[in-house]
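ok so i was messing around last nite and threw this chain in just to see what happens. nothing serious, just curious
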Amino acid sequence: MPGTPAEAPRPEPGPAAEATGAATGATGATGARTASERARFDALVAEAATAPVDGWDFSWLDGRATEQRPSWGYARAMADRMGRAGAALDIQTGGGEVLASVPRLPPLVVATEAWPPNVARATALLHPLGVAVVADTDEPPLPFGDGAFDLVVSRHPVTTWWPEIARVLAPGGTYFSQQVGPASVFELVEYFLGPQPPEVRGARDPERARAEAEAAGLDVVDLRMEKLRTEFFDIGAVVYFLRKVIWMVPGFTVEEYRPRLAELHHRIETGGPFVAHTTRYLIEARKPG
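result:
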């Protein structure tokens, strides 16, 4: 269950974050109400704080958090397009998990990734499938020639460099991407950071993506957005999520946010799952032939 990739401006600390230090009060150093609750809190947090967070596999959260999936089925739709392509590029492949699920890859496939642990993970997973993984800084220019690919895909890119996508696409080629929309999982973000300004909440607007794609010379043939329910069933799931999706609460550490985490733990234990909403949009754009 991926979160919101960073796009300036990033979330900034607000009143909730400033109040973190005062969140203990009568509840004790951890914010828990009873000895058993404190013990469970400490165990859940310790487990989540040491769990590996490399790659883009969220299976650690199975049974601990759920995220509703978009109706369009990105992986299936992307695989269908891969099966009809001759040369394809997957930008920001993460650990390569989504690309590796494609049953029929094109004759030529290249993937890029910026984070060194994911580069190693993607290489180990994708090289046996004939996919070359390129370590790239996720800044222009893409390390490929003009018109090199008839299909470019990306799932949850941090930044979409539209002029570069247009450049590496062959005439008639397609860009197909699922992206994180505005204010995704902001119930959780604002729990820790306080209310965010409109320019932060409104970042990653799909209509902005449409305008930027068209400005780069591409024709947008599909653009859809959905708001989807997300639930966290224990505080360990929250800690793991914030450690893995580091741009949600920049600089997050258990130590800094322990009192706020303890308050949220009590809320989940007594009131049920913490509910947030992700936003996702699908965009498909083609380069005129």
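not much to say yet. The longest strand covers residues 219-232.
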